[in-house]
Amino acid sequence: MADLTIPEGGFWPAPEIPQPNIYPMEWRVETEKLAAIYEKSKRMVWNPADLPWDGLNAEDFTREQRLGIMYWFAVLANFDASGPAVFARATIQAFEKHEEDPVRKCFFSITRDEMNHEECCQRTIAKLWPGGPLNWTPSDDLETAAHNNIGWLYHNGGRYWNGYTTAVGKYSLPVLFTSFMMGEMAASTLFRGMASGTQHPVFSEMFQRIGRDESRHLQICMTILENEWPGLTDDTRTLITRQLRAGFVFLSMILWEPPEGFWELPPYFLPNHRVLMNHARDAGLGVLSYEEQAENWRVAMARIRAIVERWGIAFPAIPELDLEGVPVDFIDPEEIIPVF
Ligand SMILES: [Fe+2]
Ligand SMILES: [Fe+2]
């Protein structure tokens, strides 16, 4: 065996690594609970390709119903299709900021789950409306209305991405995570409602599984926030209040109906959206009624209010749901943190 080389005067220290940088690669664990959630996420992994797709057939629906279902999944995709990229970016950020190992792993698991949720949109649309959401040619007024509305939705989806990519670096973890927490609260509420409303075996299993994932995402966010909230400053609290309003304005598109003050939509969007949503309802997708949606959303927002008020964060006024609070004016696309 060759002899070790010991330099005269001792070993030379390696140079300092400039930050932010993903190194060093250590596996520091501070929050055991997050490590346990990550283990659970691996055990609960499921494959969207294994849903009972043979039971979902275009012939079982009228053309209007198929269009309605495609439209609903296109609206959902406006949220869920951002999921993988949003959390992939957050995962990289967690590495760069040297967050503890379970934080990095949990973000990765959310990225994995969101890819599955997006795949559900993709597979359903491919079966019921090939070419959807946008790569098809409408042949009558109803189809044109659907195609045009989806185009407007995607226009809005495209408006927040630049804002998000800067927000990830700009906002502190509690600000980012309050928004994430709100998105996960919204998502788990939505899919629980849909799972209870649908009569279709494919959608029933899909919504139950997605709902379970979203509840786990919510648990991850809450666990991280419990670590982060004690160090809040007043400036951060004010920012979080705005973020909560931004989250409401953004997420209402899929949970209920889009409120004023962010969405750029033509005047006919909402009436046509209602017609298309009614076709999706009629198809047995599990879309709750306007009133049921409002009630679920109100309950979810009230839960968020109870959580944030414990930490001295003022809740924004949500007059649309009769929830009182601090008035927050117009929401800029830069303030939207897209998450689901
Ligand atoms: Fe999701
Ligand atoms: Fe999620």
UniProtKB/TrEMBL annotation:
One of its GO terms (molecular function) is oxidoreductase activity. It comes from the Bacteria. SUPFAM superfamilies: Ferritin-like. Gene3D superfamilies: Ribonucleotide Reductase, subunit A. InterPro entries: Ferritin-like_SF, RNR-like. This is Ferritin-like domain-containing protein. The lineage of its organism: Bacteria, Bacillati, Actinomycetota, Actinomycetes, Streptosporangiales.
